[in-house]
């Protein structure tokens, strides 16, 4: 049976205010569809992999529109169930100057994905053809039923010999008061199942509660990440450090911890068109490098270039090709390509 890369998670509608207006000023919105799983599966399909999304969409025209969008990205939709009436939404107001961009969520609790019965999914069958499963902390935060579904699918994929990539993606607004304490046991459970983890030292300090005597981020990273990899037998851990500058440009430096060794990408400084989804593009780059057996240094450079390019593409899902990313790795800036 041919293997595929799968993601389990919610599909959301992105409603963007045109230009840099506020919601209170706008009279129209541009919509598309998003979600961490959508971004991962869509970007990896662009890199040539067979991908599928495991989710539930509403059984109405809204769900039809989302399904059509996923099909345009080339994502297999055979494991998507249809029930309920609602799709989670977020409204995006693009920042400018001193005003940051703002995301406002709506309908998430009532969404078809977050209210779907476990009977919607034939996890036993789905797990049989998954080479790598992507799951994240956003899905883990939604509710007890979704958490149970995520863990059930993850265990089945692992039992069938598939790999698990867990992206911490901690969102304070989703976990609520005492969020770190609530999240910790669930994160620990996923760390025990994961082969690969996307995180940085903040996740180690605040979610897992690891202490550090160091005060700089890099020293904390180099102290804590090896401990986590050893404790949970994780083959590789990767993440980024981001700086936002006064001229609205950003800088990213990425790291990959693999085979007891840190590899760092050179810091990249770039202008930002669309910030949302850039972390998922980084994860996509890590997955590609690992599956292609790139040396660690090549993998992390590729992942950072993938994230950098995602900032230049409108919408949440990066559509950069492998050639685009490799060109960005070499830092070649070109005029119009004719």
Can you give a write-up of this model?
α11 packs antiparallel against α12 (296-310) and α12 packs across α13. The protein folds into two domains: 4-237, 3-Layer(aba) Sandwich (UDP-N-acetylmuramoyl-L-alanine:D-glutamate ligase); 238-338, no CATH class. The mean pLDDT is 92. The strands form two sheets. Strands 1, 4, 5, 8, 9, 10, 11, 12, 13 and 14 form a ten-stranded mixed beta sheet that branches. A four-stranded mixed beta sheet has the order 3-2-6-7. With 338 residues, it is of the alpha/beta class. It is built from 13 helices and 14 strands.
Q: What does the radius of gyration come to?
A: 19 Å
The CATH homologous superfamily of the largest domain is called Ribokinase
Mean of all residue-level pLDDT scores: 92
Uncertain residue segments: none
Largest sheet: 10 strands, mixed
Which structural class do you get from the secondary structure elements?
A: alpha/beta
Helix content: 25-40%
CATH architecture of the largest domain: 3-Layer(aba) Sandwich
> How far do the termini sit from each other?
41 Å
Strand portion, in percent? 15-25%
Q: Would you give the CATH topology of the largest domain? A: UDP-N-acetylmuramoyl-L-alanine:D-glutamate ligase
Give helix and strand order, one letter per element, not per position.
EEEHEHEEEHHEHHEHHEHHEEEEHHH
Query: How would you sum up the global shape?
Result: globular
Total helix count? 13
Q: What is the CATH class designation of the largest domain?
A: Alpha Beta
How many structural units, i.e. domains? 2
**Topology, number of strands:** 14
């Amino acid at each position: 049976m041919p293997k595929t890369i799968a993601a389990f998670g919610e599909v959301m509608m992105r409603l963007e205010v045109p230009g840099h207006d506020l919601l209170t000023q706008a009279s129209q919105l541009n919509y598309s569809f998003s979600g961490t799983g959508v971004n991962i599966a869509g970007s990896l399909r662009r890199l040539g992999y067979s991908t599928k999304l495991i989710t539930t969409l509403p059984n109405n025209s809204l769900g039809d529109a989302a399904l059509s969008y996923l099909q345009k990205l080339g994502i297999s939709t055979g494991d998507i169930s249809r029930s309920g009436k609602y799709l989670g939404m977020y409204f995006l107001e693009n920042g400018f100057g001193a005003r940051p961009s703002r995301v406002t969520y709506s309908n998430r609790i009532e969404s078809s994905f977050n209210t779907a019965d476990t009977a919607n999914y034939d996890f036993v069958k789905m797990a049989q053809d998954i080479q790598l499963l992507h799951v994240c902390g956003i899905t883990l935060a939604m509710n007890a039923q979704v958490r149970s579904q995520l863990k059930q699918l993850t265990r089945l994929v692992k039992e069938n010999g598939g790999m698990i990539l867990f992206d911490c993606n901690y969102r304070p607004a989703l976990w609520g008061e005492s969020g770190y304490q609530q999240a910790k046991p669930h994160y620990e459970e996923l760390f025990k199942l994961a082969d690969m983890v996307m995180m940085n030292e903040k996740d180690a300090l605040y979610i897992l509660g690891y202490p550090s005597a160091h005060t700089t981020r890099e020293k904390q990273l180099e102290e804590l990440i090896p401990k986590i990899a050893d404790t949970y037998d994780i083959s590789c851990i990767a993440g980024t450090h981001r700086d936002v500058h006064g001229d609205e440009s950003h800088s990213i430096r990425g790291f990959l911890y693999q085979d007891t060794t840190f590899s760092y990408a050179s810091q990249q400084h770039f202008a930002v068109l669309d910030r949302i989804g850039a972390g998922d593009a980084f994860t996509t780059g890590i997955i590609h490098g690992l599956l292609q057996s790139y040396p660690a240094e090549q993998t992390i450079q590729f992942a950072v270039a993938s994230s950098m390019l995602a900032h230049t593409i409108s919408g949440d899902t990066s559509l950069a090709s492998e050639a685009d990313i490799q060109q960005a790795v070499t830092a070649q800036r070109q005029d119009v390509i004719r």
